[in-house]
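[step 3/7] fold_predict: job queued, chain A
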Amino acid sequence: MRSSQRANLQAIRPLGVRGVPTGRAHEQGERVEVSVVVPARDEELTIGPLTEALGRELTAQLAERGWQGGYEIVIVDDGSRDGTWGEIERAGERDRSVCGVRHPRGLGKAAALATGIRLARGDRIVLMDADLQDDPTELPRFLNELERFDVVCGWKRERKDPLGKRVASRIFNAVCRRVFGLELHDMNCGFKALRREAAEAVYPYLKGELHRYVPVFASAAGFTVTELAVRHHPRRHGRSKYGLARWLAGACDLVTVLLLTRYRERPAHAFGSVAVVAAALAGLAALPLALVAGTRTALAAVPVAMVVPAALLSAGFVAELVVHGRGGGASTRHARHDASGRLDADLVDPAAANVPALAVADDGTQNIAEAKGA
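[step 4/7] structure written:
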């Protein structure tokens, strides 16, 4: 075989993920009422207690509400280096509704959530962390709110985290409320519940660190969003995966989300606004320069100062051409409800998400595979 052919084969060969999802919820033909998606990394001490508590709560809710279907707990091991995967396997042996899947390496929380949503079959999808800081007994309240809203976000009103993390969260959420107009106090809370069509609408954007903006994407797609104050417990095992670098990344992602939502179909407005501000600042800087170095020097500096605004305007116009040249508008909007309340699947492009892809084998079993990147 020639080297070029061998390279192409290596590029397209999928990386298998150990562990085939099993369980009662994944048996052919059974309806799933609720799917709980849990991303986990190095959480071997919490998987057992969490799955047991979730199993008790979900079993009680199915009986109380008279739902005919079952439930499933989808745990995504995002490249753990401890015994997390072994605990997931043991949990699956105890409860056939526990479904485990493993990333070959740490792909991030957003990718783990995307994998879980792709596997989940429930009409209602609950997202929660694996660290036992989220309380499974809050599930009934989330399910009640889903009767009226499409997305329910948890609000850790009395947060049991270090002071620095609490302060950073308050600042982040205050900025998000101001920028996006969503009156949510805890945008990045990991405890959320979504109707299936809302989860499918935000799925393509679950990459990088964009998972904390799920409510923004859902609202931009036309879904109703609310929040629910929840109990929050101190972390008893492991350590937090979040630090200063992640908060800085979240701040940078805010610009990305603005471009994907508010300015998705009019990017020239975003770039043009920044260009005007840059030009104004350049003009203000020219005044003291003229007083210090003379009018001639200030005038000579103007063309140089206008380079940045001109570049921004050019980028905005190019972005407009790209958006409209690709048929921007309804064909590229986020998924929305149609008149019957069902999801218009044609408006969702799952391939746009840089996450592991779901494959269904001939025998009906499901597995996850990630295309090897360049």
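[step 5/7] annotate
The chain has two domains: 9-252+349-371, 267-332.
The longest helix spans residues 267-293.
exit 0
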